[in-house]
Structures are given as structure tokens and as C-alpha cells.
Specification:
Elements: H1 2-18, E1 28-32, E2 35-38, H2 39-55, E3 60-63, E4 67-69, E5 75-83, H3 85-89, E6 96-103, E7 106-114, E8 119-124, E9 129-131, E10 134-135, E11 148-151, H4 161-172, E12 177-179, H5 184-192, E13 198-201, H6 206-218, E14 222-224, H7 232-235, E15 238-241, H8 246-258, H9 261-265
Parallel strand pairs: 3-5, 11-12, 11-13
Antiparallel strand pairs: 1-2, 3-4, 5-6, 6-7, 7-8, 8-9, 9-10, 13-15, 14-15
Length: 268
């Protein structure tokens, strides 16, 4: 299944790269404030689904642009054909293809592909994580002091900006720095490869984080929502980090969020 997902991710990546010299001529639509979709997203997604359908016609699909298909299927592919569309449309070289497979409620396989660097991150449950077929592990940092974190800013819903900034301010002081590259899938893949030590973000979609979450876990990291629970695919709130960085991040983020308007709106 990982091999099929790799084939699909590479096909999507080829479409993405092939269209980079005509970005200014693409058909672009606005889904909501600061959230865009281009014909490249749609073509890449169609290519992914076509390859998955040929191999597994009975599997369900949950894709960013086309939604859900065969929801009752035990196996479900979770697809983001172009994570970092805004970056792509500006020529900012940070975007990826993300594909995950969930069996019932458990993630089983994951692929994240950076078509520019051609770095391919893969994982299968219980078999570890790899980058270009070489084993990867999260960093061995002993805590937040000196750690490098990545994050994503609120951009479609500004209602929880103050809560986010509170977490960011609290995490800035003890760390070596915070980065905001713009593709949550790649943020998680880079964390799994030890390039950063922790990641957090609010209000994401399952297709943004499903593949990355499994890759981080298979690389020895820890993933949860803001309350230390396994609800991040449902509520979109995620903390991921190496084992000794994670508890310190959770200790800072959880109280910032617990009594906030954001928590009330999300029923937490």
C-alpha cells in the first residue's frame, strides 16, 4: 500500500512541478478567506485518486478538493494533493503531497513527497519511518531549551489569534527559535527527520496532518491534541515532538488553551 501511495504522490508531484512555469496563468478560486484552490490542486488530486482507485477500488477516499467517497469503507485514503497552495502560487518553494491510509480508526500507511527536493517520507505502522529509503528518527533533544520548533499561523479564522499568540509567546522564550514554513505536512516530516524538535498548530484538517502524524510516531515522536489525547484528526489541534520536548510543550500549551474562547468554541 505504501508503494501504491508513493506512485500516486510522484504522479501528483510531476503535475505540480510541470505547472510551475505557468503559475500566473492558472485558474484559481477562493474557498474561504485566504484559502485558495488552483487547477493544479484539482489535477494532482485526480491523478492520485485514479492510481488509488485502480489498485483499491473498494477503498474510501477523503480528499481536500473532492471530499468523501465510499465513506462506509473500512480503508480510507486521506489526501492533500498540494499542501501549501498559497506558497506554490507565490513561487515560495515549500509545498508537498500528503497521502495517508486509515483502517477503521487507525493510521496504517503514510507518504509525504516534496516534489522540488524529491525528498520522499514514508511510514507503515510498526515498521518505522524513512526518507528516500533511509531510516529516520526524531531528535534527541532533552527539552525545550535550545530546541527548534515549527508552527503555522492562523490564516482563515482570526477569532483565535490571541490564543495562538499566547502559546507562541510562551514557547519563544525557552527555545532556539520558531519557524513557519507553510506546509504542515512537511513540518511534520522534517520533525520526524530530526530537523526540528517540535510542532504545534490550531484548527487543521485531517488531510493536513494524517500522514505526518504517522511518520512522526514511526520515527519515535509523540503526537496528541492540546490535551494530550488522540483527537487531533477530529479537532485539528496538534502537538508533535520528540519524546523529551513533547511534555514541556504540552505543559505550556494546554493551560493557554483550556479556558480560552477557542476552547469554548471547540467544545473542549
Amino acid at each position: 500500500m505504501v508503494n501504491i501511495a508513493v506512485r500516486a504522490a510522484r504522479a501528483a508531484g510531476n503535475i505540480i512541478v510541470r505547472n510551475m512555469d505557468r503559475i500566473d496563468r492558472l485558474n484559481i478560486a477562493t474557498k474561504r478567506s485566504n484559502d485558495f484552490v488552483s487547477e493544479v490542486d484539482q489535477q494532482a488530486e485526480a491523478a492520485i485518486i485514479d492510481i488509488l482507485r485502480q489498485a483499491y477500488p473498494d477503498h474510501g477516499i477523503y480528499a481536500e478538493e473532492s471530499g468523501r467517497q465510499q465513506e462506509a469503507a473500512e480503508y480510507q485514503w486521506i489526501i492533500d494533493p498540494l499542501d501549501g497552495t498559497t506558497n506554490y502560487l507565490h513561487g515560495f518553494p515549500q509545498f508537498s503531497v500528503s497521502i495517508a491510509l486509515k483502517h477503521r480508526k487507525r493510521l496504517e500507511a503514510a507518504v509525504i513527497y516534496d516534489p522540488l527536493s524529491q525528498e520522499l517520507f514514508t511510514a507503515a505502522r510498526g515498521e518505522g519511518a524513512q526518507m528516500n529509503e533511509k531510516r529516520i528518527r526524531v531528535s534527541g533533544y532533552s527539552g525545550l531549551k535550545g530546541a527548534l520548533l515549527s508552527t503555522g499561523f492562523p490564516y482563515t479564522d482570526q477569532a483565535y489569534l490571541d490564543t495562538y499568540l499566547e502559546t507562541m509567546k510562551a514557547l519563544m522564550a525557552p527555545t532556539a527559535g520558531i519557524r513557519r514554513p507553510g506546509s504542515a505536512a512537511l513540518d511534520l516530516a522534517w520533525l520526524a527527520a530530526g530537523r526540528t524538535d517540535g510542532f504545534w498548530e490550531f484548527n487543521l484538517n485531517a488531510w493536513d496532518i494524517a500522514a505526518g502524524a504517522l511518520i512522526v510516531r514511526e520515527a519515535g515522536g509523540i503526537v496528541s491534541d492540546f490535551y494530550g489525547r488522540d483527537g487531533y484528526l477530529d479537532n485539528g489541534d496538534i502537538i508533535a515532538a520528540s519524546p523529551k520536548v513533547f511534555p514541556e510543550m504540552l505543559k505550556i500549551i494546554e493551560p493557554c488553551v483550556r479556558n480560552s474562547e477557542y476552547a469554548k468554541r471547540h467544545g473542549a
